[in-house]
């Protein structure tokens, strides 16, 4: 199973669906996936803290790669969307059409 380099959000969501079935992660509930998403967001937060701020970290804190953590967040977000039956690309278009009508102060 490969992911096309010129991929779309729909391709990514489809890939995550197939990957989870292949690896046996497809039986987890949406709540389980949402908890994993918060965990991955925490890991991303730690890399941002380490690589983009002067906030201290424990000297034995494991090295984490920001791009890898962003990928983890995207993968698990796709998993949550798949469990909810949400097409992220379609949802993005719909929500942005609403957002464009807002007045930003
Ligand atoms: Mg991670």
**Beta-strand level of the residues, as a percent range?**
under 5%
Secondary structure class reads: mainly alpha
Poorly predicted spans: none
SSE string, helices as H and strands as E: HHHH
Average pLDDT score? 92
Give your account of this protein's structure.
The protein is mostly helical and 105 residues long. It has a single domain (9-99), classed as MazG-like (Helix Hairpins), CATH 1.10.287.1080. 66% of the residues lie in helices and 0% in strands. The chain has 4 helices and no strands. It is globular and about 40 Å long. The model has no long low-confidence stretch (mean pLDDT 92). Residues 40, 43, 69, 72 line the site of magnesium ion.
Short description:
By secondary structure, the chain is mainly alpha-helical. It has helices at 9-23, 30-52, 66-84, 88-99.
